[in-house]
């Protein structure tokens, strides 16, 4: 699809770089596969602010994505590729032979009119889904399950993928984008190929207003606050904060390890690079 650059006719267009959406569907989403999406503004069920810098943004409809690929052994035709405001990747509307429709994550190089299938007897082709035990080693995969039947949890954002590097009788070893090597049950499903829209990482929004349209509010530095609001706040004149960088709650903010799930440490063969 490529990137789209603009002449600096206005201040907002100077430096603006977006992905070219010319090949995507231009109409509304498939109505039966959408539902309303309420804004939380970063508040939880008690109304307490738990996630700062969120609020506002354009109204959206949620597209119901089939991460489980639960329709087995039934071919589907790719009807169209669509933009999805709820994720960085594009999505594909597929129509099964029995007339049912479904949304899936669109892999890179998936074309309109091609057929895809979720089956253990499927060909090794972009968009096909199968269990890890049936996928050859060194294949690039995405939408990888971590528990059989739970649905894909790994490699779902734009341009991401994992590589299947080995298998034994119970577990497959996959290499994630971070460099981490992880063991996953061979009964777990994955989809062939890498996720679409790899140029998403090269987008430059050009102005603060575009971030507001996305529902993201401004970030206020801790050193600009009062002591009651942040550990770095207060002091006479401009200060550096007076201590190592921490979050508003006092947790270290520069690369401190936060992983605490020791139960699944045995499945990580090698940690990812920093």
Q: How do the strands of the widest beta sheet line up side by side?
A: 9-16-10-13-14-15-17
Output the CATH class name.
Mainly Beta
Number of strands: 17
Q: Number of domains in the coordinates?
A: 1
Tell me the β content.
15-25%
N-to-C span: 30 Å
The helix count comes to 1
Category by helix and strand content: mainly beta
- Corresponding CATH superfamily: Nucleic acid-binding proteins
Overall form: globular
Q: C-alpha Rg, in Å?
A: 22 Å
The third-level CATH topology is: OB fold (Dihydrolipoamide Acetyltransferase, E2P)
Percent of residues in helices comes to under 10%
Whole-number average pLDDT? Answer: 94
Largest sheet composition: 7 strands, antiparallel
Low-confidence stretches: none
Could you characterize the architecture of this molecule?
The chain is mainly beta. It has a single domain (3-201), classed as OB fold (Dihydrolipoamide Acetyltransferase, E2P). The protein is 2% helix and 24% strand. The chain is built from 1 helix and 17 strands. It has one helix at 208-213; strands at 3-5, 17-19, 34-36, 61-63, 76-82, 91-96, 101-105, 115-116, 129-131, 140-142, 144-145, 152-154, 162-167, 171-175, 181-185, 189-192, 268-270. The strands form 5 sheets. It has a 7-stranded antiparallel beta sheet, with no helix packed on it. Strands 7-6-5-8 form a 4-stranded antiparallel beta sheet, with no helix packed on it. A two-stranded antiparallel ribbon has the order 1-2.
